[in-house]
Every structure is written in C-alpha cells, then in structure tokens.
Design brief:
Chain A is mainly α and about 190 residues long. Helices cover about 80% and strands about 0% of the residues of chain A. The longest helix of chain A is centred in the first third of the chain and has 40 residues. Chain B contains ten helices and three strands, in the order αααααβααββααα. The chains are: A mainly alpha (about 190), B mainly alpha (about 220).
Amino acid sequence: MQELVLHTTGTLEGRASEDAEQTGVRLAFDHYLVEFGPLAFRVAMGVLRNPADAEDVAQEALFRAHRKFPGLREPSRFRAWIVRVTFRLALDRSRSARRRELRETAWSRPEHRPAPPTVEQIALANEFQLRLERALDQLPDKFRIVLLLSAIQGYTLEEVSGLLEIPLGTVKSRLFFARKYLAEKLK
Amino acid sequence: MNCHLAQKKIIDCFAAGVAVLPAEVAGHQETCATCQDFLVAQQKLFRALDEGLESLVRVPAPPSLVPRVRARLDGGPVPTSWWRSVWSFGALTAIVFLALSLHVLWHHPRRPADLSVAFRREAHPGPKAEAASPRTNALARRTRTRAAVLPAHQEPSEPFVEVIALPEERAAFAKFVAEVPEKRDLALALTRPTHVPANEPREIGLLEIAALEVKSLAEAAAE
C-alpha cells in the first residue's frame, strides 16, 4: 500500500508570504502607475507628437519601470526614472521612424516624393506650430527635455532639476539657451 | 545704451522668463519707438512659443494607458513592439530554411551509392598526354576532359583507371557504368586499355592453320 507523505505547512506559509509580498509590490506599483502614467505620456507626446506612438512608448516605459520597481520605490526616484526612460524611448522611436521614412523615400522614385508644402498650404496649416515642431526637432536632446518638462503644468525649475538629477543652475542655463534658440528660429 | 544692446537684453530677459526689464533697458525703450515695437513683438513671440509648447505636452493621457499596462503586467495579450515580431519571424524563417536545406542535401537522389566519378579539367596537356597514342591525343585535344572511374572495391589512393570521353559521351558513359549492376569490373575491363610496356618488343604471333585443302575454282563450283 502506497504511503502518502504530507509536506509540512512551513512550505505553504513561505509561498503565502511570497504571494502577499508580490501583491503588495503590485499594489504599490499600481499607485505609481496611476500617478505617473500621464507624466510619461506627456513626455512622450512632447517628442513624438502622435498620441498613439506616445501611448506605446509610455506603456513600454511603465512596463520596464515595473521590472525595476524594487529599486524605484521612492516616488522621486520613480518619477525621475520614468521621465528619463520615456524620453530616451521616445527619441529612439522618433529617430527610427525618421530613418524608415528616409529609406522609403530613397527607394521610391523622386517624382513620387511628396512635394514641399506651398505657401498657401503653409498659410492654411498651423504655420507657427509646424515651425515650432521643426525647431524643436533640431534642438539638442538635453535642452529639449528641460524645455518640455518646464512646459508641463506644475513643474517648477526646482522640480525639473530633481526629475533630471541635474543642478538648478544647469536647468536654468539650458532653458535659457533653448528658449533663445527657438525664438531665433521662429522670428 | 544703443538699440542693438537693448534688443539683445530684451531677448535675454524673455528667454530667462524674467518679467521685469532691467532699469537701463526700460529707460531706453521708453524713448525709442523702434525698441518699443521690438519689445511688443518679442512678447508675442515668446507667448506663442510657450502656448505652442504647452499644447504639445498638456495633452490628457488616454484612458486606455493604465489598463493596457495592467493587462500587460497580468500576462494578458501584450501588444509587442513591431521590431520584435519582425525579428522573431526572420529567425523562424531562417531556421525553417536551414532545416529544409539539410533535408534536401541529406537525401540527395543523385549521389551514387557505390561508384564515384571524378572529372578533371586539364588546362594544358602535360608530357604524359603527348606520349600517348595519336587517337588519345586527338581526343584529349578535343575535349580536355578526362573521366576517372573508380571501381567499388578500389581505394582512391590506388592507381585508378582513367577513361577519356567526349563531353557529349560523358553522361552516357557514366550512365552505362552505373547501370551495370553486377558486372562493373567487366564494364571497366571493356574500357581498360591494354597495358603494353614501353620497352618490351611487340610479339607477332604466328598464324597456325590446322588443315588446308587447295581446290580449283571449277571443282569448287561443281561441288
């Protein structure tokens, strides 16, 4: 007759505590997800200017944040991390989209390339906004992120300094340079 | 203060987000119409710049963002990045192609089971070819190709038989040898030239007639 062996309850208790810990981690992350998810989206939107792409990038950044969450429990660290990673992911996506567009244009025949916008088309479109976006694309990355974060409502220069983990003076000088650069391009 | 310096300072103030102009700049623009117009234009420009930036980033997050992240964390259907799908597909295609190639090469139907046929091309006929018979030389000159056929039991290191074949006859000869299933040695012997040592004199054998009857034509016709 086969004898059945019952495992001690110690193993079950260990498993239960692991589950409880994971649940706690998940709950804490969920709280950060609700609080900082919109921030990630706005940072991505500032670079990509396309809601669908921005959502994809924000989702990816938040997913990666979950994997690194044990080291990002502190809210200020989590916020700074999510801003940096989202910005980098958005830049990568923007550059790869630009490279793909250039490749497709190079392959296609020149006569099939879209014609440059006419004066009338520019006037009809939101001219200033288009020029602003083009000027933003030409701005170096470290200046662009400072400009975008300062434009997001509620972030003072001190908070931007904390998000990017750079000195306040550096934030001010980069913001100054970025605004002056754009004004020169847009005048 | 001149206009150029005043306008430069105006730009610096707006770029730095300073609301109040320095005293010397304020004093100058009060008396200079050009700088007053410049100040108004810069105010409009920087206001438009700030509004444009805000319109880019102050977009409400879509309501689907948080549920999508939750679903992904819960192991639900995950919308993967497009490049991952492409790489996965490419890797799978390469593996399938490799497997098919190995299968075809392993079960290649034309590989002979017990005979190997080697073809050698000769760019220039060596002295060996010149010492051969005139017929051989003519063939060699025409084809420059030799077919070497190894019998099944012969090791490649042993001197093997060489048969000179015209290109148009090469395939037929290989087929002939391959299709003689049990008498390959006989087939090779048929094609093997007689070995005649170069230094030994040729012997002419005598014709021996056992019996000879001589008759006249008239007598043979009568019979």
